[in-house]
Structure formats: structure tokens, C-alpha cells
Amino acid sequence: MTTADQQTWTSVDKYFDTALIGPDPVIAEVERAGEKAGLPAISVSKAQGKLLYLLIRGARAQRILEVGTLGGHSAVWMARAIQPPGRIVTFELDPRHAEVARAAVDQAGVGDLVDIRVGPAAEGLAALADEQPEPFDFVFIDADKASNATYLDYAVRLGRPGTVIVVDNVVRDGRVLEGADEGSEGVRRLVDMLADRTDVEAVAVQTVGERGYDGFLLAVVSDSVA
Ligand SMILES: C[S@@+](CC[C@H](N)C(=O)[O-])C[C@H]1O[C@@H](n2cnc3c(N)ncnc32)[C@H](O)[C@@H]1O
Ligand SMILES: [Mg+2]
């Protein structure tokens, strides 16, 4: 058995990105702006951003919900996948991150499609639920991992049968097995909750790449949900 290392994973990402994504000045600018503002390098990779884009295109999703905006990297990918009157509502705790994201989505030409709500997402989601909005078609959960179960619960409530939910960073370099840190413990609580629920089907997929060894959880709201 050969065991590839981080350098190989990064080179393989580069190989596929060059062939299948190509130069993307808009995304390059979003990344540059985030770096310049000193944001942590914890956004989706280019390949993961395009995966979100393709999932949204494939599902013909129009109403998108995101938890955890950071500098707007994933939001730009997702906004580019939807057609008007589609829209993204995205929650961000840190006002400085939200400010960088606002500039990024405006500069990317998708600002009209992106509603950035600043504050703790759990409170924001409760307020959004009170607004009784049209159901969301696609949800990307990528914020404080300790609250994953809460966010998943809102995603189902704010969705409809067939709503696709992606939860990012569920493997955490394998730390999910121990659940010893807050994030891994949050992932395990989410998985325990999903194991008991019949209103949503889920699977987790491990990944490697320029962002290291991690993975995502994909869930779909069941047809039986009223
Ligand atoms: C991994 S980053 C998001 C990356 C982004 N989705 C991307 O891929 O471009 C997580 C973000 O969640 C935010 N966050 C952390 N706790 C939060 C909370 N309770 N409510 C809303 N956002 C939160 C952090 O400030 C950070 O910007
Ligand atoms: Mg992430």
C-alpha cells in the first residue's frame, strides 16, 4: 500500500483544478482579499467550492442557506450557481469577516444575491424561522462545529423534502474518532442525532486535498417530511 502525503494531495488538487476549473480571477481575488484582511485560511478549497456549485446546479437549487460566511469564498461559488430570483442567506458571527465577505460578493458581481446576517447563527436561524420563509433548497453548514446538530435541525425545519444539506469538516484529520475536542464532539453529536432521525438520510465522505485530511457529511430531507 502506498500512503500519499500532503504534498501529493495538494499537487493532485492542482492537477484536477487546472484541467477542470482553470484560471478563475474572481475566486483568486476573493482569496487574495481574505489573506490581505488576515482571515484564517479555513475556507473551502477551489475544488470544494466547485463541488458546492455543481451540487446546486444539479439540484436546480435556488434558495440557499449558509452557516459560516468567513470571507465569502463558498458564498461566491454558491451564488454563481443560482439563477435569479435565487438567493443566499448566510450567517456570520464576526462583523469583520462579514465586512470582508460583503466586499467580496459585491466585487464578484453577485452581491444582489447574497444576504449576510451578522451575529450568532443559532439566534439568526431562529429569527429566520419566525419569518416563515419559502423553503430552502440547499444548505451549507460550515461554522462552529459544536453547534452542528442545532444547525442541522434548523436546516431540516427550513427545508423541504429533497433539500440537500452539506456539513463541512466532519473528519478533522481523524479526530472525529476520539471526539476529544469541541469540534469533533460537535460532529459526533450531529452523527448521533442523525442516526436516530428518520426525516433525513445522510452519509459521510472522507476527503484529502490541499486542505488536508477531512470530509463532509451529505444529508437529504426525506420525502416523508410534511
Ligand atoms: C470555516 S469558516 C467558514 C468558511 C466559509 N464557509 C468558506 O468556505 O468560505 C467558519 C466561520 O464561521 C463563523 N462562526 C463561528 N461561530 C459562529 C456562530 N456561532 N454563528 C455564526 N458564524 C459563526 C466564523 O467566524 C468563521 O468565519
Ligand atoms: Mg469548512
UniProtKB/TrEMBL annotation:
Keywords: Methyltransferase, S-adenosyl-L-methionine, Transferase. One of its GO terms (biological process) is methylation. InterPro entries: Cation-dep_OMT, SAM-dependent_MTases_sf, SAM_O-MeTrfase. PROSITE patterns: SAM_OMT_I. One of its GO terms (molecular function) is S-adenosylmethionine-dependent methyltransferase activity. This is Putative O-methyltransferase YrrM.
